Amino acid sequence: TQREMVTAAITGVMLSLVIAFVVMVIATQNWWVSLLGLVNIIAITAVFLGLMPLIGWSLGENECIFLIAVVGLSVDYTVHLLHVYNHSPEKTREGRSRHALSEMGIS
């Protein structure tokens, strides 16, 4: 039923977010930067959730899988962006952010 789909989607996304945070802490060796990366991943997931009704999708089996895949795909970009940010030669946060975005791009 729809209620079971929602429960499964929430459980899958939450588990994926926890695993993503652990991976980012291991990859960046910085829990604060990893927490900011987690905020980025949650924002990407929220945008996807907001777009689902706009494009006419109801929550089914495929959409539950897509939600978990969205978390996984956003982790890939976020980890690379955080890695460049952590290893930037710049001294200020703004300089490191500019460097990371110029190296990785915004897409």
Task: Write structural notes for this entry.
The chain has 107 residues and is mostly helical. The protein contains 4 helices and no strands. The chain has helices spanning 2-28, 31-54, 61-86, 93-104. The longest helix is centred in the N-terminal third of the chain and has 27 residues, at 2-28. The N and C termini lie far apart (36 Å).
Overview in brief:
The protein has 107 residues and is mainly α. Helices cover 83% and strands 0% of the residues. Helix 1 (2-28) packs parallel to helix 3 (61-86).
Using brief descriptors, characterize the structure shown.
107 residues; mainly alpha; 0% strand
Mean pLDDT: 87
Radius of gyration: 16 Å
- List the secondary-structure elements in sequence, H or E: HHHH
Instruction: Please give the largest β-sheet.
Output: none
Instruction: Give the % helix.
Output: over 70%
The total count of helices amounts to 4
* Percentage of residues in DSSP E strands: under 5%
Could you say which structural class the secondary elements and strand pairing correspond to?
mainly alpha
End-to-end CA span: 36 Å
Question: pLDDT below 50 for ≥5 consecutive residues: which ranges?
Answer: none
Looking at how many chains there are and whether they match, the oligomeric state comes to single chain
The total count of strands amounts to 0
Shape: elongated
